[in-house]
Design a protein that fits this description.
Layout: H1 2-17, H2 23-44, H3 52-76, H4 82-89, H5 92-103, H6 111-130, H7 136-159, H8 165-186
Helix pairs in contact: 1-4, 2-3, 2-8, 3-7, 3-8, 4-7, 5-7
Length: 187
């Protein structure tokens, strides 16, 4: 219950922070701090540097799941409510289920799953049509954050099944934080 409360309030905090920081810079600072802490943990635990064949996937996931995901959320929060942004972002399981059908063995859509996805997508369209004062661009950006998150999870399941999770999380966060800070510097 406490974790749900913290995660739920996090959306409100991110929206409020947009009034103090440029939106993407705030996300960049958060993830840069997290990356520094994780790099220190890896150093003291003597976690080796990733192999190149894994590092490229860590970077891809960092771009999709950390950089783009948070960039899309923070920009969406400029125009949408925290509640609607979170609902559209958490559409990720719908997109992952559809992608998994095509790209993960044994994840075929059956009638029950397909019915759930159709109902979920109808619900998304209803929420987006109501859009509570937000622009279409912000709505699509929020949905795209869920798509990006789903694609990253698909990559993890396809390419990184035997990865060290501390190493993966660290380098994903390093890549994502670098991308967020670079975006902030450019824009």
């Amino acid at each position: 219950g406490l974790l749900c409360l913290i995660w739920g309030f996090n959306w409100v905090f991110m929206k409020l922070a947009n009034g103090v920081f440029p939106p993407v810079l705030f996300a960049g600072y958060r993830f840069a701090l997290g990356a520094l802490v994780l790099l220190a943990v890896c150093y003291f635990r003597k976690v080796p540097l990733p192999r190149w064949k894994d590092l490229k996937w860590y970077i891809a996931c960092g771009i999709l799941q950390t950089m783009y995901f948070n960039l899309a959320i923070q920009i969406s929060l400029e125009d949408l409510s925290a509640g609607l942004t979170s609902v559209l972002t958490y559409s990720m399981p719908l997109w992952l289920t559809l992608m998994a059908h095509f790209w993960l063995p044994g994840e075929k859509l059956r009638l029950r799953k397909l019915a759930g996805i159709i109902i979920g997508i109808i619900g998304l369209f209803i929420a987006m049509d109501a859009h509570w004062g937000g622009s279409t661009g912000a709505l699509l950006l929020a949905v795209s954050s869920g798509l990006s998150w789903a694609l990253s999870n698909l990559l993890i399941k396809r390419k990184l099944t035997n990865s060290d999770m501390l190493q993966f999380t660290t380098w994903q966060m390093v890549a994502g934080a670098a991308g967020l800070l670079l975006y902030s510097a450019i824009f």
